[in-house]
Amino acid sequence: MYLLVSAIIGILVALYLFFNRSKHDNQYLSNLLGIVVICSSVHFLRNYLISSGWILDFPWFYGTFSFIYLLAPAVTYLYVRGLLNDEYKIKPINILHLAPTAIQLVLCIPYILSSREFKLNNIRAITGHNNFLNNTPINGVPNKYYFATIFICIVIYSLLMLREIKKAKLNSKEAFQLEIYQWARFVFIASLSMAMLMIINATITASKINGNFHLTVFGPFLWLRLLLFTLVLYRIIFSKRLLWGLPNFRQDSEIITKQLATTDSNIQTEIDQVQEVSKEIILSDQQAKQYHLVLVQFFLTQTHLYTELEFNLNHLAKFTNIPKHHWAYYFQYHSEISFVELRNKNRITFAKNIMRLPAFRNRTIEAIGSASGFGSRVTFFNAFKKYESITPSEYWDSIKRDTLD
């Protein structure tokens, strides 16, 4: 039952990663992580069906998803590399990493289209020991060659991931960089450990020593893999920041540069320095300062936007051409106040300014709050008192007294 429940939870987590667009995430990385999770989930679901005997009711499941064992190492590598190198989309050259999976999927087509009886014959061969390494093919290629290919893929992609992790260690100095680095390292260690346990499992099974079936199918090798998978799911579900991926700050460096270069020559010099730093470090304090300058310029010039009642991170992202998950990271790690607090603080400043205008002298407090972007008198009063320590009515009275004096 633990196998089945873990597999179902894994599939649900993967679907969340694929289809939840309300997150402030890097969707490319979320998709890759979802594929990694669903590969493991299908693997454990397959094991459950075999161990429970239900595989006889679903014989197509046994060989249909064999391509996941080639897909998982490649996608895990792309995910780890994407985390550590600020990637937001797959490059055409990287599609080559999926070539072995595509070939395997094509080779599986005859099996997928074969009769139910043919599939059942393959299932019935699992008696006393798993026939993973024997010469009975389920995909057009003898399984021992398929296993060798999987082993080679695991070794190659493990070395590639290890190289990326070693390189990224030099840049993991700031808080969120360190968190991303540790998560990438954890994914690498967990995935490699699960893969090696699977290889040991298959190798011992191939020896055909009496009793190996229960040692490998129901024994410690399976449960250790399942425990590692559970830890991965736990980290994803209860560490929601990890769902966001790593924001692709470099993607918009040129856009931000153009926005700020027109305002001050000193800012342009600072931006040039930031771009030099960004070649070596994914996100630095200078880059955070660059985003701060964008915010300052925005709240100085775009009062008609942030005083709209519905103004949120989506609108900020749309106007600045900076994805909203960038701003989510900025406010999470590099801002002393949250986005809502910054928005409300600027709205209060706007309210104080318009209270001094002759055109607003005969307006009500509710009208002032509404014009400033607040949806009700209560929210306006609470925000005003929070930042000014007095109510808007008291502030307005002080303005009127000053005018009379």
Over the alpha carbons, how many angstroms does the gyration radius reach?
29 Å
The structural domain count equals 2
Share of helix, binned: over 70%
SS element count, helices: 20
Biggest β-sheet strands, sense, barrel: none
Kindly report the average pLDDT value: 78
* Intertermini distance: 80 Å
Structure summary, number of beta strands: 0
Shape: elongated
Low-confidence residue ranges: 127-136, 210-216, 243-257, 259-283
CATH class of the largest domain: Mainly Alpha
β-strand amount: under 5%
Judged by helices, strands and strand pairing, the structural class is: mainly alpha
CATH architecture of the largest domain: Up-down Bundle
CATH third-tier fold name of the largest domain: Rhopdopsin 7-helix transmembrane proteins
The helix/strand order is HHHHHHHHHHHHHHHHHHHH
Please give a structural write-up.
The chain is an all-alpha fold. The protein folds into 2 domains: 2-244, Rhopdopsin 7-helix transmembrane proteins (Up-down Bundle), CATH 1.20.1070; 251-404, Arc Repressor Mutant, subunit A (Orthogonal Bundle), CATH 1.10.10. Helix content is 71%, strand content 0%. It contains 20 helices and no strands. Helix 4 runs parallel beside helix 7 and helix 11 packs antiparallel against helix 12 (265-278). The radius of gyration is 29 Å and the shape is elongated. The chain starts with a helix and ends with a helix. The model is unreliable at 127-136, 210-216, 243-257 and 259-283 (pLDDT under 50).
